[in-house]
Write a structure and sequence with these properties.
Strand order of the largest sheet: 1-2
Number of helices: 19
Radius of gyration: 21 Å
Distance between the termini: 56 Å
CATH class of the largest domain: Mainly Alpha
Low-confidence stretches: 1-7, 12-19
Oligomer: single chain
Structural class: mainly alpha
Mean pLDDT: 82
Number of strands: 2
Number of domains: 3
CATH superfamily of the largest domain: MFS general substrate transporter like domains
CATH architecture of the largest domain: Up-down Bundle
Order of helices and strands: EHHHHHHHHEHHHHHHHHHHH
């Protein structure tokens, strides 16, 4: 048998990949998972490092919020178009470029001389991360052409990447205790190199899909200005955000290749899923930000990371339970259960932090895997990829707004706001499903 790594693996539509050894495909799947693991890890790992970051580079709460949200703003804004970029230039090229850029910019971030430079580099990291998600999924689809095998592969991919949430606070605490906040970025470099090594010989054909760059620019500008309006409470920014929202809608409607086709948004099931996704990430990311600042008044970085285990551990194993529930009962019951647990968890987070975190952890791990299935099922035929990309984008918007809004409020008030949002999302889903 010829050595498979002596030449590129061409994942053309007419070439069967079932002849590849299982171990060969598994190693490539692990490499793809590692790339997106990095992306998700960086949404949480920096949170525990914020006090050390502030002591080193200075800056107020607003600056720390931008260090977190600068990443999620660009990540969210670029996700809808990242799929089109992957199709146009080839998923293997886009994934490799995203992972390589992530490693390089992480290295530069570790050397950032001040908070302003770090915020800019975090925004670039978000752009690199956006390239990794749709391209990795496109490669997995080609690598596992048999539906049953593909389902198991995507399950493994989700489990590996889902562990990033569980590992983030703990890993961040350990890294900060050893090497300060800069170590949080340095650890990305060897992981990125390993990911590139494992997927180096995969090739996916490009399709030449059109991209509306003007619409994408409007989306980025809108999210950035909206976040600035919330973080810094600027009336001028709020007005500018409203104007950009109108311009963005006009550009999308006139575009021959819109980033978000109107038929997708028109589906009630998709809209309800997007609302729920935004609420989940609002509560999760905003809660992590508020709890970190609160816990580190009394605990060191390692102890803070360990204190988050009630929240993060359920996300490492409960998605497997959620998958079985979705298969048996459909996606709606697990999502409703998750939103209910999130509502209760946010209300309990201030008086009983460990109980609040435990409920939030189970709420997130019930909601998110089921939401992906629900949105894809509700999408029009042939638009599942666009719908799933839009869900991920809206989730990151929710995360951005969660940090911006909750970070500017007192702890108790912040969690009441998050609980109210999760409750509204649950009622919207329940009432909407009853009418349909």
């Amino acid at each position: 048998m010829p050595r498979l790594w002596a030449h590129p693996i061409l994942l053309e539509s007419h070439v069967s990949t079932q002849t590849l050894p299982i171990s060969s495909r598994a190693s490539r799947l692990f490499g793809l998972s590692l790339g997106y693991f990095l992306v998700l890890l960086d949404t949480t790992v920096l949170t525990v490092a914020l006090p050390d970051l502030r002591a080193s580079l200075g800056g107020g709460v607003a600056g720390l919020q931008w260090a977190v949200t600068g990443y999620t703003v660009t990540f969210a804004a670029l996700l809808p178009t990242a799929g089109a970029v992957s199709d146009r230039f080839g998923a293997h090229r886009v994934f490799a470029a995203g992972v390589a850029a992530f490693g390089l910019v992480s290295l530069l971030s570790a050397a950032a001389p001040n908070l302003s430079v770090l915020v800019v580099l975090r925004a670039v990291l978000g752009a690199a991360g956006a390239l990794c998600l749709p391209s990795s999924l496109a490669i997995i689809t080609r690598l596992y052409p048999v539906p049953a095998e593909r389902g198991r592969a995507l399950g493994a991919w989700a489990a590996i990447t889902g562990c990033a949430l569980a590992a983030g606070p703990v890993a961040g605490g350990l890294l900060v205790s050893v090497g300060g906040w800069r170590a949080v970025f340095l650890v990305n470099v060897p992981v990125a190199l390993l990911s590139l090594l494992l997927v180096r010989d995969i090739r996916v054909p490009a399709t030449g899909r059109d991209i509306d760059w003007w619409a994408q620019l409007m989306a980025c500008a809108f999210l950035a200005v909206l976040t600035d309006a919330i973080v810094d409470r600027r009336v001028v920014s709020a007005i500018a955000a409203a104007v950009l929202a109108v311009v963005m809608v006009v550009v999308e409607r006139r575009s021959a290749s819109p980033a978000v086709p109107g038929a997708v948004i028109a589906e009630p099931g998709v809209r309800r899923g997007l609302i729920a996704g935004a609420a989940v990430n609002f509560a999760l990311s905003g809660g992590l930000f508020v709890l970190t600042l609160s816990l580190q008044r009394h605990l060191g970085p390692v102890a803070t990371g360990l204190a988050f285990l009630p929240l993060t551990l359920p996300t490492a194993f409960n998605p497997l339970v959620t998958g079985r529930l979705v298969a048996r009962y459909g996606p709606r019951p697990p999502v409703l259960a998750g939103l209910t647990l999130l509502t209760l968890g946010c209300l309990a987070a201030t008086p009983v932090p460990w109980l609040g975190m435990l409920l939030i952890g189970f709420g997130v791990s019930f909601s998110l895997p089921a939401l992906v299935t629900g949105v894809v099922q509700a999408a029009p035929e042939g638009a599942a990829g666009v719908a799933s990309g839009l869900l991920n984008a809206v989730r990151q918007v929710g995360a951005t707004l969660g940090v911006a809004v909750m970070g500017g409020l007192a702890s108790g008030t912040a969690f009441v706001v998050a609980a109210a949002l999760c409750l509204v999302a649950a009622l919207t889903l329940a009432l909407g499903a009853r009418r349909s």
